[in-house]
Design goal:
By secondary structure, this protein is α+β, with helices and mostly antiparallel strands. Helix content is 19%, strand content 37%. The N terminus and C terminus are likely disordered.
C-alpha cells in the first residue's frame, strides 16, 4: 500500500512539475519584489560536479538596495522553467532576491531578472524575456539572436528611469 501511494505521489509531483510555467510579471512588480538591483560583471562561476552553481560578480552600479562592491548569486535553475545562469566575463543587470534559507541571492522571477548587456550604436542595452512586461510606451529593439524574435532589448537609461519611478516595498508594504 505504501509503495502504491509513493508511486502515485511521485507521478503526480512529476506531472505537476512538467506543466509548470513562469507567469508574466509587470516590470514595476519585478522592481518592488527585489532587494538588490545592480549592474555587475561576472568574475567567476563555480563548477561543482554535483550541486548548485554560484556566481560572484563585481558591482559597478547599485540601482536599488545596499551599496556593495561584490555580490554572490545562485547561477543554477531551481525548477523546470528556471533559466538562472551566469557566464564568466559578462556584464549584466541583475534583479536579485534573498531567501532566509539561502547563503546568497537568487535571480528574480526564475532567472528572468538577469538581463545581459550589449552595446548597439554606442548605447548600452539590456536584453529581457517577454515574461517581463515593460510599460507600453517603452521603446525596445530586437534582441541579439534573430532566431528568437520574442526576446527584446531596452536602453539602460530607460530601464534606470523605470526602476527609479517604480513603487518600492518596505517590510512587505508598498510606498
Amino acid at each position: 500500500m505504501r509503495t502504491r501511494l509513493l508511486i502515485a505521489f511521485v507521478t503526480l509531483f512529476t506531472v505537476t512539475q512538467s506543466f509548470g510555467k513562469v507567469t508574466s510579471i509587470q516590470f514595476s512588480n519585478l522592481v518592488a519584489n527585489c532587494e538588490l538591483i545592480v549592474v555587475a560583471k561576472v568574475e567567476s562561476v563555480s563548477s561543482p560536479l554535483i550541486g548548485k552553481r554560484y556566481a560572484k560578480a563585481k558591482v559597478t552600479e547599485v540601482w536599488k538596495g545596499t551599496n556593495t562592491m561584490t555580490v554572490e548569486f545562485l547561477a543554477s535553475p531551481t525548477w523546470t522553467c528556471d533559466i538562472s545562469e551566469a557566464k564568466k566575463g559578462e556584464t549584466v543587470l541583475l534583479f536579485l532576491t534573498r531567501s532566509a534559507k539561502s547563503r546568497s541571492y537568487a535571480i528574480a522571477h526564475s532567472g528572468r531578472g538577469r538581463l545581459p548587456l550589449r552595446t548597439v550604436a554606442g548605447k548600452s542595452y539590456a536584453t529581457f524575456w517577454p515574461d517581463v512586461i515593460l510599460p507600453k510606451a517603452t521603446a525596445t529593439i530586437d534582441g541579439p539572436e534573430p532566431k528568437w524574435d520574442f526576446i527584446r532589448s531596452v536602453e539602460m537609461t530607460t530601464l534606470r528611469g523605470l526602476v527609479t519611478r517604480a513603487p518600492q516595498k518596505t517590510h512587505g508594504t508598498e510606498q
